[in-house]
TrEMBL record:
Positions of the N-acetyltransferase domain: 9-173
Originating organism: Streptomyces netropsis (Streptoverticillium netropsis)
Residues in coiled coil: none
Family matches, as PROSITE patterns: GNAT
GO molecular-function terms, A-Z: acyltransferase activity, transferring groups other than amino-acyl groups
UniProt protein name: RimJ/RimL family protein N-acetyltransferase
Amino acid sequence: MTEIRTPRLMLRRWREDDLGPMADINADPEVMRWVGDGSVRDLEETAEDIERWEEEWDDEGFGLFAVELLASGELAGCVGLSVPLSLPELEHEVQISWRLGRQFWGQGYASEAAQATLEFALQERGLDRVISLSRPGDDASRNVLRKLGMAQEREITHPEYDVPLFVHSIDLTEFTA
Ligand SMILES: CC(C)(COP(=O)(O)OP(=O)(O)OC[C@H]1O[C@@H](n2cnc3c(N)ncnc32)[C@H](O)[C@@H]1OP(=O)(O)O)[C@@H](O)C(=O)NCCC(=O)NCCS
């Protein structure tokens, strides 16, 4: 069972009681603005997401973590790893992504969770490199990417949503724990 403790967070596998809080996060249009096609996701879709993330953990030994605040036990959102299956040209890559409830922004939690996730991915799970995708205008994610030391590589177009995406990457030699 993969669990990571950071100074303020617990990154862990998903539990049944995470569904409600994660669905609340997914129901906020401001949170979902830069995610996928920008649509909010309902309770059923959130349950499907969590099931898929758990399957990825079982099959690949990585996935999206549930991010819990150590101080309160609240679910702040999800940060973790996945294969970008909707982008055929990146199917051989593993991406890091993040999504926190709005009340948890601006406190350094996303960066703290992402840094621990990269350490897990590159040093423990043994991945050669990790990519991340950002949309032009998603300044909050670009700020996290900058702090992680993930360099922008190139720009692609999402085949389904027809929106530009920047591809960022980092490998073990570039990573500073
Ligand atoms: C993208 C997202 C995760 C970024 O979250 P965030 O809270 O802005 O990111 P961080 O964790 O880096 O925290 C940012 C700020 O918290 C502040 N902060 C407050 N207390 C802090 C602390 N103890 N330690 C560090 N930073 C702290 C800092 O000012 C920091 O900004 P800075 O790096 O410019 O100084 C968040 O905006 C989000 O969930 N958005 C919706 C989902 C989304 O768009 N995901 C990406 C597309 S898939």
